[in-house]
Amino acid sequence: MPSTSRPKPGVWFEFASACSASPAGSCFVRSYPTNPILVSGKKEAIQIGLAFRVSPMICSLFVPSSFSGRRMGGERRIVAVWWPHWAIERLERDLARRARPLRVPEKPRALAMPGVGGLRVTARNELADAAGIRPGQMVSDATALCPGLELHSADREGDRKGLVRLAGWCGRYTPWTALDPQGIGDEPDGILLDITGCDHLFGGEAKLLEELRRRLQGFGLTTRAAIASTRGAAWALARFGNQPALVLPVNGEVDALRSLPVAALRLNEAIVNGLMRLGLKKIGDLYGKPRAPVTARFGPEVSRRLDEALGFEPEPISPELPPVFYRASITFSEGLTRNAHIEDAVKRIAADLCEVLEREHQGARRLELQLFRVDGEVTRLQAGTGIASHDAFHLSRLFREKLAQLGDDFDTGFGVEALTLSCLAVDELKPAQETFENESSRAQALEQFIDRLSNRFGADRVLRLEPRASHIPERAAVAVPALHGHMPAMQGWKTYVSEQMASVLGGSLPRPLRLLPSPEAVDVMAEVPEGPPRIFRWRRISHQVARAEGPERLSPEWWREGKHRTRDYYRVEDIEGRRFWLYRDGLYHRDNEGPRWYLHGVFE
Q1: What DSSP string runs through 312-381?
Q2: What is the bridge-based pairing of β-strands 245-247 and 177-180?
Q3: What single-letter DSSP state applies at residue 248?
């Protein structure tokens, strides 16, 4: 390696630019007080502000640097949870749940699925392990070793769903939880939690990790967990670390990963075996090694995984649940079993949540209540509002009615030990000035009544009409769920409520309030071709017209595809006082085909 100026030790340094951006085949190195790299396994340093030229070969080393001047993961804190015996322990947990209140006898158990040559064992419990059963064994060999072995079919899809449920249960610690798709074997066996900014709610990272692991162990699951600043480091320490629960200090990934095997970088078996044949058995063996030869032989996977583990490449976590804007939670020393106590708890967290929303001038539009049971099950209830609201009484009442709807179907198990109320959607809600007529309060009461109806009967069963940009009657409005609220374009839309009410009371409504689902053809007799109808037949009943008003001519929308013709609408009243809304589709002097008559609505 070409020689460089030897910097004075004492301050960490890292590369500030890639070699391709430097002139004359060299690049600059700039110092930073807290971001380290390792060159040939030694800590190097220069004084802050000093820069010097180095050979471009240094930029191809396996060093803890993103070659951009900043680490990616220093501010994030990730928890990786691993269950080494997840499949078999999930089976035994399910067997115990089904057998309640009886006790499931302890006996050797194993899971099997089709493999090369026939059925092979995929997992076994401790008693089967003591009998000599190993994963990958043929079932015939396993039963010969242990005649009393109890076999069950492996359920990979059930295992994955169970992990997703546990990730949802961990939502009591942070809303940012997800299934970890990378396991030791072919299937996932853990979950990830991003606890950035959440640990202080539980007394710090160590106490949070201790409580999380204790609760999971209480579910009958052998649990290992680690906290680190990167997803890759937490994954490696949870599976290959020497402690079942470890909290890694910030920026401690370089030293913590040095002694771990290269398999801890989440590399496939072929790459791991190839690295070990070259003598690169531990992650620390990669420090200071040129990247080009390793990349040429194994591809970019090795360098990418190393950079992710050390925090020099971003590796985001995609949560299983939608993002949460605001959240309030409460925990109890003993589980709640009565609905009345749960409703009181909902009132408390709704008041706390609405206090924050009011301070931020925000209103909830869609909320989710999570009830965490002692046995690890989670019940989720969702409610919505037509307009933004931070009224604690109204929001808690929506969930009180949801709980009442569940009735006997709501099972608290051994009790509900924690509740979480989350805002999944919010809108800006500024303070409004009250008037002497108290119009805003009346409007708010109506909206709250609509919210209650929608949440009780279903959002798709309580509808309202929303105008559209069309003058064709059947396209001028569309029915939408009332909980969807008003479109932004409808803000300030004039509704002409007083004029509409005056027309209804005076009997001079220009159009019927309700139209038929689709216009129905009628037979019409008129005095003159272009005149109003005198007699029409609808649904095999003849009506003699006493009075008629019209026409109201509507031209077709030229931008729409298809054959559309001009309409002439008439309001007619028969001799018995019934009023109808008919139209003639087409004109005699303009269309080749003769016009046809339709009935579009009835005045009530």
Answers
A1: SS------SS---SEEEEEEEEEEE-SHHHHHHHHHHHHHHHHHHHHHTTEEEEEEEEEEEETTS-EEEE
A2: unpaired
A3: P
Helices (H), 387-513: 392-406, 439-457, 497-506
Q: What angle do CA 528, 531, 534 make, to 5 degrees?
A: 85
Q: Return d(Cα 280, Cα 261) in angstroms, integer.
A: 9
Report whether 521 contacts 583 (CB < 8 A).
no
- The CB density around residue 502, as the number of other CB atoms within 10 Å, is 12
Residue type, 70: R
CA 442 to CA 435: how far, in whole Å? 11
Question: Helix, strand, or coil here: 448?
Answer: helix
Give me the residues paired with residue 119 across strands.
114
**For residue range 148-176, what is the model confidence (pLDDT) as tens digits?**
999 999 999 999 999 998 998 898 898 88
Angle separating helix axes 86-99 and 156-169, nearest 10 degrees:
80
Does 304 score more than 90 pLDDT? yes
**What are the angstrom distances between the C-alpha of 162 and each of 86, 98, 190?**
10, 16, 10
Pairing of strands 118-124, 109-115: antiparallel
DSSP states along 40-86 = TTEE-B--TT-EEEE-GGGGGB--S--SSSS-SSTT--EEEEE-TTH
**Residue in this structure with the two tokens 């299983």, named with its chain if needed:** 320
Integer Cα distance of 145 and 130 in angstroms: 11
Tokens of 314: 């971003």
Q: Cis (ω within 30 of 0) for the bond into 551?
A: yes
Strands 596-602 and 579-585: antiparallel
| Confidence bin at 494 (pLDDT 50/70/90) | low
Q: Tell me, rounded to whole angstroms, the distance of Cα 155 from its chain centroid.
A: 25
In angstroms, rounded to a whole number, what is the distance separating the alpha carbons of residues 492 and 171?
40
- What sign does the dihedral 421-427-433-439 (CA atoms) show? negative
Work out the burial of residue 509: count CB atoms within 10 Å of its CB; fewer than 13 is exposed, 13-18 middle, 19 or more buried. Answer: middle
Q: What whole-number distance in Å separates Cα of residue 520 and Cα of residue 598?
A: 5
Q: What is the pLDDT of residue 483?
A: 83
User: Are 133 and 121 contacting, i.e. CB atoms less than 8 angstroms apart?
Assistant: yes
**Helices H, strands E: what count in the chain?**
14, 25
**In this predicted structure, what is the pLDDT of residue 128?**
92
**Which of 322, 39, 52, 314 has its CA nearest to residue 176?**
322
SS3 state at 5: coil
**Secondary structure (H, E, C), 584-600:** EECCCCCCCCCCEEEEE
Crossing angle (nearest 10°) for helices 439-457 and 392-406? 20
- Contact status, residue 580 vs residue 543, Cβ threshold 8 Å: yes
The phi, psi pair for 603, rounded to 5°, reads: -80, 130
Q: Please tell me whether residue 550 adopts helix, strand or coil conformation.
A: strand
What pLDDT is recorded for position 335? 86
pTM above threshold 0.70: no
Taking a C-beta distance cutoff of 8 angstroms, is the pair 539, 602 a contact?
no
**Pair of tokens at residue 86:** 């997840």
Nearest to 28 by CA among 38, 39, 13, 40: 13
